[in-house]
Amino acid sequence: MIYPIVIFGAEVLRKPSAEVTKEYPELPKLIEDMFLTMAEADGCGLAAPQIGRNIRLFVVDCSAWGEEDERCRDYRRAFINPEIYAVSEETELFNEGCLSLPGLHEDVRRPAAIRMRYLDADFVEHDEEFDGMRARVIQHEYDHLDGKVFTDRLSPLRRQLLKSKLLGLSKGKYRCAYKTK
Description:
Blueprint: H1 27-40, E1 45-47, E2 57-61, E3 76-87, E4 91-96, E5 106-111, E6 113-119, E7 125-131, H2 132-145, H3 156-170
Antiparallel strand pairs: 1-2, 2-3, 3-6, 4-5, 6-7
């Protein structure tokens, strides 16, 4: 099933998400549907709040950067109950967009590397370090689980300059090629 993407302004995008248990109804199907939804919208990551579910789950597909970074080749993964517990002092600037903020792209500074605990789709525990595009995409999606969007990481001045665009999104003034709600 392809889910509609929740657009900026919806309350679900601002709520912290709840932990996921093995008993969560049809979790494997939800993960599969999230990958389908992300691909349909031509995204590289999708968090559960973006489809209206406030649970600590996101999926990523970094294979678009596979030629630049071998570690991204065929890198598709689900992250359940992730916890970023260490970040590098070194940061990197990258122009980000978001399926929930169609048409909006801004340069966002994030830690260059992170260390994170998470469960995979089979509820196997992992403790890994990520850098490069994988770290970038993971941090972007992780923010959604805490009720944040990438514009929250911009300077107050930049956010003020974007205020009318963000208000427009929340009032339904946008165009995109995927289903939204």
